């Protein structure tokens, strides 16, 4: 199991890595699972948040890869040949789907 992956519980299945769960519809980036190629659907947030994320290259239609999403830490996202670190608040506002 990937050491940086979030652990989840639910449906009586116990705990497991998020990257083993299927990605259905739109989900927040923080819950999408490590190592997946994703497409940004939308950014829920005010003008300031959307502007900051757009300056980092994160906007609807952009393809990203979630490198790591560990509990109580930052999400690492790879896009356009670089890696960006996002806090949990920003990662919750970015809605993604499987690319």
Keywords:
single chain, 99 residues, alpha+beta, SH3 type barrels, six-stranded antiparallel sheet, two-stranded antiparallel sheet, 2 helices, 36% strand
Could you characterize the architecture of this molecule?
- With 99 residues, the protein is an alpha+beta fold.
- The protein has one domain: SH3 type barrels.
- The chain is built from two helices and eight strands.
- The chain has a six-stranded antiparallel sheet with strand order 3-8-4-5-6-7. The protein has a two-stranded antiparallel sheet with strand order 1-2.
- The longest helix has 9 residues.
- It is globular and about 30 Å long.
- About 11% of the residues have low confidence.
Instruction: Please summarize the sheet with the most strands.
Output: 6 strands, antiparallel
Average residue pLDDT? 80
CATH superfamily: Ferrous iron transport protein A (FeoA)
- Domain module count: 1
Q: In angstroms, what separates the terminal alpha carbons?
A: 23 Å
Radius of gyration: 13 Å
User: pLDDT below 50 for ≥5 consecutive residues: which ranges?
Assistant: 6-16
Strand line-up in the sheet with most strands: 3-8-4-5-6-7
CATH class: Mainly Beta
C-alpha geometry: globular
CATH domain fold name: SH3 type barrels
Q: Give, in order, the helices and strands.
A: EEEEHEEEHE
Strand content: 35-45%
Q: From the 3D coordinates, which CATH architecture would you assign?
A: Roll
The structural class is alpha+beta
What is the share of helical residues?
Answer: 10-25%
How many strand elements? 8
Per DSSP, the total helix count is 2
């Amino acid at each position: 199991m990937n050491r940086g992956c979030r652990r989840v519980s639910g449906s009586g299945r116990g705990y497991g890595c998020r990257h083993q769960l299927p990605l259905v519809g739109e989900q927040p980036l923080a819950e999408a699972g490590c190592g997946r190629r994703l497409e940004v659907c939308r950014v829920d947030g005010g003008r300031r948040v959307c502007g900051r994320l757009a300056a980092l290259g994160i906007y609807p239609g952009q393809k990203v890869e979630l490198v790591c999403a560990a509990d109580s830490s930052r999400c690492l996202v790879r896009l356009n040949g670089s890696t960006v670190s996002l806090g949990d608040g920003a990662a919750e506002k970015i809605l993604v789907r499987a690319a």
